[in-house]
Design goal:
- Keywords: Membrane, Transmembrane, Transmembrane helix.
- This is DUF2905 domain-containing protein.
- InterPro entries: DUF2905 (IPR021320).
- It comes from candidate division WOR-1 bacterium RIFCSPHIGHO2_01_FULL_53_15.
- By secondary structure, this protein is of the alpha+beta class.
- It has 2 helices and 2 strands; from the N terminus they run H-E-E-H.
- The chain has 2 domains: about 1-30; about 30-73, no CATH class.
- The chain has a two-stranded antiparallel sheet with strand order 1-2.
- A hairpin with a 2-residue loop joins strand 1 (about 40-45) and strand 2.
- The chain starts with a helix and ends with a helix.
């Protein structure tokens, strides 16, 4: 790999991290995100297990739609 392509790759990774960070900041303001019916929370003394099944299905559907719209040829 040439130095130029490594630099480009680092820039792309940086932009991706900024977008993911912005996504998490926006999602924190949505009160129902992560508390959908189908998200499993198991609480016990000293232990909490959280399995966000419904939330991850919703995120997967939204990302699939967005990426299909963006990369449609």
């Amino acid at each position: 790999m040439a130095t130029e392509s490594i630099g480009r790759m680092i820039i792309y990774i940086g932009v991706l991290l900024v977008l993911v960070g912005g996504f998490f900041i926006l999602v924190a303001k949505v009160p129902w995100f992560g508390k959908l019916p189908g998200d499993i929370v198991y609480r016990r003394e000293g232990l909490t297990i959280y399995v966000p099944i419904a939330t991850m299905i919703l995120v997967s559907l939204i990302l699939t739609l967005l990426l299909n719209i963006i990369w449609r040829r």
